[in-house]
Amino acid sequence: MLKTTALIIALATSAAAAQAPARLPTVPQARHLLEQAYAENRAAFLAKDADAVIRQRTSDFEATTPDGAKHGATEMADATRRLIASVNEWVQIDLKLGDVSVEPTGLAADVDQHTIRKQMRDGQLRRLENWVTQRETWVETPDGLKIRRVDNIRNQCVLIDGNPRDAGQEAACISRGVWKRTGKSERG
To answer: pTM for this one?
Structure first.
């Protein structure tokens, strides 16, 4: 579990500062903390350790999907367990931090995700490739940084065996430059 915390980094070293409230980390400090947290998250997914992935979330975790629906911690934990159970092999997991901001409510980051996995779907082993950008907000807890919220999910493209998951995915796949309307994935 991530033991380095924003609170430790932000605390002043003088005795007088011990009485003062903690300062927020700088953006470079926040980026470093989040890079460590995402490395742990990636390792948990690669190990197919759903419990480790879920432990990185707060008990009041919430994800807001593009349609505005809110999904709580229990629902998302169940979805994570189902996803990981269906993955035969992770081929690639890339998590790239975009803009990072330090807010009184936590550390927020835009994250570009690109994953490739071999997964059972519709009774067959399929190759799924997924791109998505979303904002994730992490908060300090006694156990280290944890994800509190995922929102602003956008520009998602899912290719199943080289083709968009559905017609609604085509525009995002084209804009990301990973699929052409010919139906053939540029990624093979």
So the answer is: 0.81
